[in-house]
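Reply to dn_fold:

You asked what the input looked like. This is it:
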Amino acid sequence: MANIFPRWSNLLPLKIAVCAGAAASGVALAIAYYATPKTLTVGYQPSQPIPFSHKLHVDQLGMDCRYCHSFVDVAGHSNVPASNTCWNCHQHVQRESPKLAPLHRSMDVNFPGYDGKPIEWVRVHKSPDYVYFNHSAHVNRGISCQTCHGDVNTMEVVYQAKSHSMGWCLDCHRAPEESLRPLEEVYNFSYDAEIYLANNPHLGEAGIKTTEQLGLKLKEEFMVKPKESCATCHH
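and this is what came back:
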């Protein structure tokens, strides 16, 4: 009987095996690369048009996050400050500092080069367009700025301290009690759960004696029931 398969088909299984191996290796390398802190932008620290020091304004002067980021507890997204927010203070404070030239160009009509344009801050933290994250839903249920953005109060230049990866978010959704704070402590960068318990003896009298118990109490009090399905963030 004549051979119905052409001669080149003898190498077909080998070619398929080579292609499958190359594809598998590519997938493995892609996962290894895209799971690194470099890709997740941990440590990303861009220069800003004005060298704003959070350490000075928050840690030393005690400014509340909401003075500059005024949408954070009332909207789905947080905002960077408009020029007039900075101008409220700096039309009187450090007026002659050359570092504030972009602010003067934006706000001071008598400043050489005045153009009235907003300050072009460089965004540090940004979720992909296909991810929905609601700031107000988190901060109004006991999640601090510090939980997601790190010790911003000590940063001379803001950088991304946490990965903000899907797995990182899911870890918190699976055990939110580990991150919850009393609402009055959400913007307190010096918060310590053990000190909070010591300063509120009525909690101990109610049987809340450990930080774990405090977290579970807050989870129940705030009715925190975070979802883990894809549709939670990918609408």
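The two ends are 61 Å apart (CA to CA).
Hope that clears it up.
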